[in-house]
Amino acid sequence: MKTNKVKELADRLEDLLPQTQCTKCGYPDCRGYAEALAKGEALPNQCPPGGVEGIKRLSQVLTSIYPQDAFDLHPNINPECGIERPRAVAFIDPQKCIGCTLCIQACPVDAIVGASKQMHVVLSDWCTGCDLCIPPCPVDCISMINVTEEKTGWDAWSADLAQLARQRYHDREQRLDREQKDNDERLAKKAAVKLAAVNAEQPSSAEEEKEKERKRAIIAAAIARAQQKS
């Protein structure tokens, strides 16, 4: 399939995913899974949050890849990816939280707020139930609370919630990218100042000249790495 056709198909498939960014499908985010589906590298039964209804929706679009109804081939969620379940939101026990910020770093939609060494709080309206915050927590203070009773899959989610989650995910990605660039620029400026200071040195011996060249090489390599990132 041509590249533009793959992208068009991936766009359609991504619109059908719940955008929880949970990685249970085996890909880093919903877009990654959609692209793998479009290339025929993944099956439509790898998204537990979408459930059986999700398989049906994806299968209807994948008729251009599969010679027969993909839903008939894969009617149930792959157990290796998880199970279809009610929607849950994370809850942080305030008595146990130590403010390590690891859960904040793990949340793909910035649904956890707090600061280092201060208690963190989950914004339940933003939480997608991905439970990615649970593994990194060193004190096991996070639990998942069922908020949809018996409703599972797309019965427990909606297209509007999916779109909001996708926007928050992209906003977070842009923020992290911006912060990384700002940090790289700060380090580059710091390295430039150090390089100027080294260049201004006046070695009085061969040994000092050698040390000067060593420092210049280290700083120059750091600047080159920063330039490659930009």
Summarize the structure.
This protein has 230 residues and is mostly helical. It has helices at residues 3-15, 30-38, 51-61, 70-73, 102-106, 159-199, 206-229; strands at residues 88-92, 112-113, 121-122, 142-146. The strands form 2 sheets. The chain has a two-stranded antiparallel ribbon.
Question: What is the chain-wise order of helices and strands?
Answer: HHHHEHEEEHH
Q: Main beta sheet, described?
A: 2 strands, antiparallel
Q: Radius of gyration, rounded?
A: 24 Å
Supply the helix-strand structural class. Answer: mainly alpha
- What's the helix count? 7
Strand fraction band? Answer: 5-15%
Strand order of the largest sheet: 1-4
Rounded mean pLDDT is 90
Low-confidence segments, given as residue ranges, are none
As a percent range, the share of helical residues equals 40-55%
Structure commentary:
- There is one protein chain.
- The chain has seven helices and four strands, in the order ααααβαβββαα.
- With 230 residues, the chain is mainly alpha-helical.
- The strands form two sheets. Strands 1-4 form a two-stranded antiparallel ribbon.
- The longest helix is centred in the last third of the chain and has 41 residues, at 159-199.
